[in-house]
Amino acid sequence: MTTTPPCPTCGSEHVYPDGSLWICPECGNEWSQDSSLTASTEGEPGVIKDANGNILTDGDTVTVIKDLKIKGSSQAIKGGTKVKGIRLTDGADGHNIACKIPGFGAMNLKSEFVKKS
Hints:
Elements lengths: L15 E3 L2 E3 L6 E3 L29 E3 L3 E2 L6 E2 L4 E2 L3 E2 L8 E5 L3 E5 L4 E3 L1
Antiparallel strand pairs: 1-2, 2-3, 4-7, 4-11, 5-6, 8-9, 9-10
């Protein structure tokens, strides 16, 4: 007898197979039967990674990896700018880092445009 794995998203035990996929009726998550035994941190909510895949935490120092235009301003944040003491947020618009940038003030950034220093 084969055992059905719990849902990696919600942990429900009421999953069922459908072809080569497992399906969770409670949250609607679908995943491959080949990867059913291992859950990665990429799908976990609350894990924010930088452009290189390093996990970020509150208080980290990051470096901007490319020039970022600021909406409504003629200035841009230059690539290589270091930002100290970041705060991670649940930005609905994709901006998941709150920080203060020297010369610009308080700002929100996307984690895909920074790397951990």
